[in-house]
Specification:
- The complex is a heterodimer.
- By secondary structure, chain A is mainly α.
- Chain A has 10 helices and no strands.
- In chain A, helix 6 (145-172) runs antiparallel to helix 9 (212-225).
- By secondary structure, chain B is an alpha/beta fold.
- Chain B has helices at 44-52, 84-95, 99-110, 125-138, 155-167, 181-187, 205-215, and strands at 2-13, 16-28, 33-37, 59-64, 143-147, 173-177, 190-195, 198-202.
- Chain B has a 5-stranded mixed sheet with strand order 5-6-3-7-8, sandwiched between helices. In chain B, strands 2-1-4 form a 3-stranded antiparallel sheet, with helices on one face.
- Chain B starts with a strand and ends with a helix.
- The chains are: A mainly alpha, B alpha/beta.
- Chain A binds chain B through residues 1-4, 12-13, 16-17, 19-20, 23-24, 27-28, 31, 98-105, 257-258, 261-262, and chain B through 52-56, 58, 61-65, 68, 70-71, 77, 79, 81-82, 86, 89-91, 93-96.
Amino acid sequence: MDTSTPLRRSLGIQFGVIGALLMRETLTRYGRRNIGFLWLFLEPMIFTMLITTFWTLTRGLHGSDLPIIPFAITGYSSVLLWRNGASRCTNAIRTNTALLYHRNVTVLDFFAARLLLEIAGSTTSLVVLLVVFILVGIIDIPANPIMMVAAWLMLIWFTIGLGLTVGVLAERSEGFDRAWRTISFLLFHVSGVFFMVDWLPSKVQEWILWVPMVHGVEMLRGGYYGPTVPTHYDLGYFVTFNAVLLLLGLFLVDRYKGSAVAQ
Amino acid sequence: MISLHHITKTYPTRKGPKVILDDISLGIAKGEKIGVLGRNGSGKSTLIRIIGGVEQPTRGYIERGMTVSWPLAFGGAFQGSLTGLDNLRFICRIYGTDITQATPFVEEFAELGTYFREPVKTYSSGMRARLAFALSMAIEFDCYLIDETLSVGDTRFHEKCQIELFDKRADRALLIVSHMPKQIRAHCNTAFVLDAGRIERFDNIDEAYASYAKRT
């Protein structure tokens, strides 16, 4: 226990540490040459674009008259957010352990830096893609942008809780680390990227609405398409799930702190 | 003043928890020079790491009334793809120190030449050690924790380090773990003897060694 460090100074130190980790992370991941950190959002943008193109070309197979481009952008951006966020957290502790030699640096800072980077990347990618397509006139202006922002913030909240939880569990158990790749692949298919809940048989709808991300993606698309497209989501359920997940993640990080040791 | 209150540290082993430090309380005052004696595995490094905040005690707590360095093991935790300068920037940001002030000092002291701006993975082990030492001198602390012997580079560089740490920072507190009595005698006037999880303080180095010899 460190006594007598005023909260304001502690906060200042913590922001400094997270900032330093952010710079370090960006430099090691993207280097200094060429376009460097631009990859942070170019990578998800290119990925989303390829999927969008593919879906546009094969749209006949989807059997829906919903504009496919915003459907693909909203869906894929959501997946990239939570899936990359979580997977970047799985080795956050392992690769940074040596930094725990510095007392100011904590395990929570490792997660904070990585999550911030992923969130910044996915968010920029989503916004740039939507804005560009709207300006070019390929897609319409969103019906309810505020609702989209709210949905995206909810997905970010989910990503933070997921990242912390998965990050500590993967560090504690190699089995979980391996299993997570399969779990996240399965979750990706039921997360609402490929469908609107309304298209599903009502029996399946009941089941699919247990998956938390579905609520975020539905709400995001609800905000884009507006009330003419029927959506199914329960904000109360998503909020509760996020709150519990974040508390669980913080609890796991706190429990882990004592056992994290620099070599 | 740094105060340790009833610090206990146990490590889990297959045969159940092993007690390394057993209810230790001690204080380190400003400017004190303390050597830590003890056999291999007696918990010297663990003690230093707990004081430095690298590890958390199982029970008990620490009050740090002065700034404490990280344990200077002179190995350094470098990110290989970053340059020496990047690593310096990182350390400065973490400790809230002015980068523009620290850069000329580290650049000159570490004697890396143009390599200061090349990735650390291209460094020889001597260059790494020099950078590590220079970095730990770039941040000012009230108390320095020194784990392991101070042997960096050739004789000349070694002397430079000794001057930087022991002469220029003569007013700071020091806590040294070393297997070389010569070193402890040269720099310390107080010693902690660690044995079976307990600690004893001696304000006379000869008495400390006499007591230590009896135990081994």
